[in-house]
Amino acid sequence: MGNAAISGHFTHEDFLVWEATQKDKHEFVRGEVFAMVGARRVHVGVTRNLTTLLTLHLKGSPCRAYASDMLVRVEAVDSDFYPDVVVTCDEADKVAERVLTSPTLLVEVLSEATEAFDRGGKFEAYRHITTLREYVLIDPQRPSVECFRLNANQRWELHSFTAQSTIVFSSIEFTTSWADVFADL
Question: What is the mean pLDDT of residues 136-155?
């Protein structure tokens, strides 16, 4: 998460009105607004590659993939985030203009500035989304892919993928290679 963008307390509705007028993106956490950190080339490349792969995979299905410009609302913790990649299979989300509420899969591409929050506070918030089945963290610097998957006992299990393994997102029956996610980087 970036630094606080403005002082004072916002409501969710105030934030959405204000955010629509900003040239940079911000996230909203319990009344506070935080500026997003600028993405680097590798971060953008991983996001692009994965969004493209997911879009092709989901074609003709009830699910859609979105890259980094759609907010995800976590009502239970009064927060809005811009994940790097979102997959939703919810009918209401398909017609949402700016804010999604029922993602199935969320992906964050890590950077030094965001890693601690993506692994900690953001994942804690995301776990309040009842439709969420997988939370993926991609570190393009190491590189690594970690998928936290909700199991049948409603517990989050970690599945780590290496360059030798096939990457699997079971919530949407998606498999891909390491090389495709990190292509041209």
Answer: 95
Q: What SS3 state is found at 19?
A: helix
Query: What is the per-residue DSSP string for 47-89?
Result: HHHHHHHHHHHHTTSS-EEEESSSEEEEGGGTEEE--SEEEE-
- Rounded Cα gap, residues 132 and 103, in angstroms: 6
Q: Which two tokens stand for residue 151?
A: 């199991």
Beta bridge partners of 50: none
From the centroid of its chain, how far is CA 80?
Answer: 11
Give strand ranges (E) for the chain: 4-6, 26-29, 32-35, 64-67, 71-74, 79-81, 85-88, 99-100, 103-109, 134-139, 144-150, 156-161, 167-169, 174-176
Peptide bond into 103 cis (omega under 30): no
pTM: 0.94
Residue 2, pLDDT > 90, answer no
As a whole number of angstroms, the distance between CA 16 and CA 13 comes to 5
pLDDT digits (tens, 9 = 90+) for 4-41: 556 668 899 999 999 999 999 999 999 999 988 778 89
DSSP helix/strand/coil, 97: coil
Domains of the chain as residue ranges with CATH:
39-181 (3.90.1570.10)
